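Justification of computing resources. Each target in the renewal requires a structure prediction run like the one illustrated here; the chain below, 950 residues long, is used simply to show the kind of job we budget for.
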Amino acid sequence: MPKNNNLKSILIIGSGPIIIGQACEFDYAGTQSLRSLREDGIGTILLNSNPATIMTDPSMADHVYLKPLTTKSIVEILKAHPNIDAVLPTMGGQTALNLCIEADEKGIWEDFGIKLIGVDIDAINITEDREKFKQLMGRIGIPVAPAKTVTSYLQGKEVAQEFGFPLVIRASFTLGGSGASFVHGPDEFDEKLTHGLEASPIHEVLIDKALLGWKEYELELLRDKNDNVVIICSIENMDPMGIHTGDSITVAPAMTLSDTTYQRMRDMAIKMMRSIGDFAGGCNVQFAVSPDEKEDIIAIEINPRVSRSSALASKATGYPIAKIATKLAIGYNLDELENQITKSTSALFEPTLDYVIVKIPRWNFDKFEGADRTLGLQMKSVGEVMGIGRSFQEALHKATQSLEIKRNGLGADGKSYTKYDEIIEKLTYPSWDRVFVIYDAIQAGIPLSRIHEITKIDMWFLRQYEELYALDTEISKFDKESLPKDLLLEAKQKGFADRQIAHMLDCLESEVYNKRVEQGINRVYKLVDTCAAEFKAETPYYYSTFEAEIETPDGKRYVDNESKVSEKKKIVVLGSGPNRIGQGIEFDYSCVHGVLAASECGYETIMINCNPETVSTDFDIADKLYFEPVFWEHIYDIIRHEKPEGVIVQLGGQTALKLAEKLDRYGIKIMGTSFEALDLAEDRGSFSKLLQENNIPYPEFGTAETADEALALADELDFPILVRPSYVLGGQGMKIVINKDELEETVVDLLRKIPNNKLLLDHYLDGAIEAEADAICDGEDVHIIGIMEHIEPCGIHSGDSNALLPPFNLGDLVMEQIKDHTRKIALALNTVGLINIQFAIKDDMVYIIEANPRASRTVPFIAKAYKEPYVNYATKVMLGHKKVKDFNFNPQLEGYAIKQPVFSFNKFHKVNKQLGPEMKSTGESILFIDSLRDDAFYDLYSRRKMYLSK
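Resulting structure tokens:
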């Protein structure tokens, strides 16, 4: 049966600001959903408070409401749009589901005659309420771990006595494992039970017997209203039970399940989905499997919505789960929809993978001093990367190369742990670098059986690691001249980077690269086609691998490259890699707009990125998507293959910017602002000299490369002093020091973490007001797109500050200085494209803090507030397609827009929550106010005193 023609207009609820446990995978899902509804001519109304996302772009929905995610906002929207027929809450994560339940309890849906699609309230309640879920599983004969729900401290003590330790405490109705913890013994039980009860909005926890060491799996399901169910993807967690799946290294398809157990798991998942309610849409089901021959299966949970894993599963398979789930929610059946990749088969077709994907989370513990870095039931990662390869080993290496943590892959980079005790401790208490430590343990001679005993990671995975180390050892016996071709090919097929092989051979990376090119060992590109090449794929979504040459009967030798190069002019856009604090979803927003703008200018667009959560890695955004690490070797090979006109680095944050030097050195054209100008702005000392030459005020400064130089400088500069490293992101390592002891300690620590860095020491303008400006420059004209004033004083990182657009109390004199300085700096840096400049204002004098000639964190916020597509304009300027004067700028904002940072401190207990020059926020929301008399502004402005009094 085709779609329900009664649905003319649908409300979609987004997930709000990014927090740990709920990131841009819901931006991806929501964007797909909106595009899917538009294809069917259905009106879309979106509620979401996050300005940094593509989802809230005016082009995505018919009406976008950038309002707080509250029932008050829902009522306002329903009154303004009496034609809304239904609400789809499954695209906005736990936040949207919780809001949907609240609106249901208040009778809002009933009052306005709104139908719920994609899920039903009973399904949400059953899956969120741990006790109801357990009872339902009992009724349908699905095993679950022994568990009891408690709502008080005393009940909890009784259950602990009954079950014995170890136990798991899980809080009901929470996100990303908030409030969940392992309890190994009675001494820690009281604190963890209290924390769980407090974390749950209904003060309820489930206490269950811990299945420590069991293997963990997830299945992604879709069901239509005719009860057809497809399993889109099986995902295996390399880490056993006990580490939140968002913090686990995961692999697709499942690697270590016997076929009979997989079939049992499928049957159980389908039975579970059918039992929780009668709705059409998506589901994520999690299971634990005993690590013995019996392979007993226990159900952990089911989520009746798209999830973090469904974004991963979509990218892993090429099957757009959110898009199809939306079609099912509006009434289509699976057999009526086409496979989006092949365009010739039906969506009632389970994807088959002839490759392996590995997801590795990305953490930011360095931003949370004193945080417990041990991984457990509560999610702590801020982003993730995905590697695609022909084998687990290749995919694992590509994922580790994508993390951007100064590692080149597993081992072979001189950064291994070598001390036995340290390795054992790191294996026992899993932390962010466990994926590397397993390799180090094998290198240190620790037997696989011992590693398995400590980590409970399946022996199959450990043997894969062992094979990699054996190859590393074998290659190390040779030098660059004597290394046999077959060994070099094997190393490349197993994902070792040229840099790693150079480390093994004790030579230069370029020498390894030259050797493999001479020997014809080149990357080939394969399609992600959903069907293991059984049907022709129409979608240009590629990953790289290495293949041995094929010889035809007539003696011709070749390798099969599925990426065909066209004659069109091409532009490469470098993505921003994994999300992290200081570089989040706003750069994905910029990359997507950059791709679309380049396409409008007539170029074939090529996107390179490795983040599975983002819209930029959707297979139908760019003309070609290379799902590859944003890592020099991979990028250079793509550029050699495609021969683009140039590369855009301004839109991918620090990730893309860091590659500008190499691109420049290899003679690859950087579109827009040149590498010299980008480098000048990043180098703190050179930039200050440029300001000096242009008579632009800046705080007194000096540069230092040693602690001695810094201490000598301190005699010239007055304390407090702001210490800033060059070439960093999100204020990494910035500190305000008030005496020589603090200065010495800070400088020594920074130079240990970032060797050979040039530090800038400048006099910190205590109590100054901070402001920032974003502008577009074409080398001749400058257009300032927005000036924002921070509510917090200078010294709090701009990403952590509440900021008002336009400024609320800067006088004409100050505003003129800001405009004048912005124009002068943009032109002095020869900016072509975007630039962001930050200012400190004291005694009506405007000083420059820093300038970034690239897309900034605030550009999407300004674009949403003023309803202008600034990234589109800036990209056309970068490409030389338009000049600033060609655009008709017409900003529209009545009143003010406030950028409000959002923090995820609740994931890290005992962490210093004090804000300073290093950024700590994970996301942001936008709030519109009519005037400065608004209570929200009063509240924020009064809290400013909290910082000034220090």
